[in-house]
């Protein structure tokens, strides 16, 4: 019998990470759930799992900046990306009404995507928790009344909860970008059309503007740029950048020039752009 791939996910069965793992790798996998993204990364680094699925940004709530740092610190490689349409639903034990709910719990990023719903329902207190589907699981296991979860319809199915309000996210066209991670640097089978980079630039006047000008000159179209300070070097910054690649040879030339002129470059991954 073929060995099942072990895929690390943040959360439990029925979570959005679980959905992505099944969509990307197929139904015949062994999902391994963790409470935090840090634990997910560690499981890949130490070889407990084969791959990991990790949310990196949402079209409403923005980037999950700490995850870029986690990928870097655990020396992981981005091998692909996957976009999932996100539908958030308010769910509780069967038989309850919306008026019975006093508190709703979910992952903070999920609650951020549903701010308008909670503004319209001030009697329901929104409380951060570790995961969307995990809250649904606890409600079912402990038969908690007056408490709702904000999670996917799959989570409601898994744990036998009733959906009290559908599609409560503020913007209907809501997507989360997930990345697929592994420990070893993959062999490129085709020319990549997208890359994730960590660039630490020197503390020099106009360095960032010059860096961006160089990247533009080499046809690198930035889709994301996030900065964090370098703790050991005051006033120096690390930039996590996602860029589209028009020409692989020009991309490689650009990385060499950045190293020579502006600072250090670490390639976190080169893969295919999956955004339609």
Helix-residue proportion: 25-40%
Through-space gap between termini: 36 Å
Proportion in β-strands: 25-35%
Main β-sheet: number of strands, strand sense, barrel status? 6 strands, mixed
- Which class of secondary structure composition applies to the elements? alpha/beta
- The radius of gyration over CA amounts to 21 Å
Helical stretch tally: 9
* N-to-C SSE string, H for helix and E for strand: EHEHEEHEEEHHEHEHEEEHEEHE
Total DSSP E strands? 15
Poorly predicted ranges (pLDDT <50, ≥5 residues)?
Answer: none
General form: globular
Mean pLDDT: 93
Give your account of this protein's structure.
The chain is built from nine helices and 15 strands. The chain has helices spanning 16-25, 37-45, 65-73, 108-112, 115-120, 132-142, 153-159, 207-217, 248-261, and strands at residues 5-10, 29-34, 51-58, 62-63, 77-85, 89-92, 103-106, 125-128, 147-151, 162-165, 175-182, 194-201, 220-229, 237-245, 263-271. Strand 1, helix 1 (16-25) and strand 2 form a beta-alpha-beta unit. Helix 6 (132-142) runs parallel beside helix 7 (153-159).
Please write out the topology.
Blueprint: E1 5-10, H1 16-25, E2 29-34, H2 37-45, E3 51-58, E4 62-63, H3 65-73, E5 77-85, E6 89-92, E7 103-106, H4 108-112, H5 115-120, E8 125-128, H6 132-142, E9 147-151, H7 153-159, E10 162-165, E11 175-182, E12 194-201, H8 207-217, E13 220-229, E14 237-245, H9 248-261, E15 263-271
Parallel strand pairs: 1-2, 1-3, 7-8, 7-9
Antiparallel strand pairs: 3-4, 3-11, 5-11, 6-9, 6-10, 12-14, 12-15, 13-14
